[in-house]
Amino acid sequence: MQSSRSALLVFLSLGLAALASAAEGSSLKPDSDKGEEDSSATVTQSAHRRIRFGGLMVGVGYSSGPFYSPFGYYPPYFPGYWGLYDPIWYSPFVHPGLYTGFLQGPNMGELKLKTASKDASLYVDGAFAGLVEKLKKFWLAPGVYNIEVRDPSDRAFRQRVYVLSGKTLEIHAALIPESQKETR
Amino acid sequence: MKFVIMVLLAAGAASAEVPGIRPRADLSDYRAHSQQDGITIAADVMDAEQARHAFATDVHNGYIVVEVAVYPESGRQPMDLSAMDFTLRLKGYPSPIRPVSARTIAAVLQRKSSPKTNPSDIALYPTVGIGYESGGYDPVYGDRRRGGWRTAAGVGVGAGASGNGVPAPASTDRDRKTMQTELEDKALPEGPASKAVAGYLYFPIPAKKKQFDVTALEYRSNEAKVHLNFPQSAKHK
After folding, report:
1. Residues of A with CB below 8 A from B62's CB?
2. B235 phi and psi, to 5 degrees?
3. What is the model's pTM?
4. Mean per-residue pLDDT of chain A
């Protein structure tokens, strides 16, 4: 408990120092010297300082014993690492892929794939991604991808998709026989 | 060696997909069409809902999307097509509007969706931890450490906080590049055109205009001048 209290004091003193430096260094004038392409979209900064609570994080953990760090013992510097669950370190926002295997995250875009054929395969940029049945929803990093859905009876659907972070894209894949595909 | 490179470049150019979109089968499928000086131009104004479905990029948010198809007369020399040769006229708005580039739109949309940050904002992150330790021998010093319940508390302080740590949708650099690519891919192809081409033109909505009627589209180049009146004024919300 003593180490926790000392750590709290360290954090609070750091916080006060950050407040002081922010008060000194804050320049609230908009940068009017730089030319803007579109004046309607100019981002102006508020002249008010806000103090915002990021939310209270509570964690529970279990440790079977003390562990050794090559940099010395964590306590009292980082009490949260001494066999305790640290909600910041293990937050999914710090490591988006920690719990998800990098399948999704706040900086990725979601694709919802709808097709009548359940045994069709999905290819992303020519690489096999999996069966459509199991990939009704999946996440991709922002970018341009060539999506192809192909079923065993040689029917296919191809589309170039533009994935943006935080957005959901619905793809209705209507499979047509390869022989009927018109060339452009 | 030079010959090989030339052949490879030619093959690459031939296999490259033509930008823009496919012209509609019939001219009457467009809301307006007109033929003058050996060029036929057809156009349709997309409303916000159509643009929302046609684009992953939120181009409807601040821009009027016009689908344009150009049909040069067969036998004539290839026309030099440029987006800057088109202007759009709105009802009650005296000045014609010129289209803007995909690059500009992508940059503006990225900036619009980026969270507004204030360097003097302070964010506090209180944390509380509780755990149980069974105890055991220290691997370094060998002394026995007593087990028991452990608690920890702390406050994280951040200056110049920007949101909650999660980037806003379509606000990263990769998003900007993707938006630019999409808008360029679907834009009306520029350069020499000897056969029918089609694509979108993006016109900025004048400031403080929330609802307006698109009345006409005009094409004016050194070679030709084509004027299209939209029969029913195309309302845009």
Report:
1. 40-41
2. -75, 140
3. 0.63
4. 65
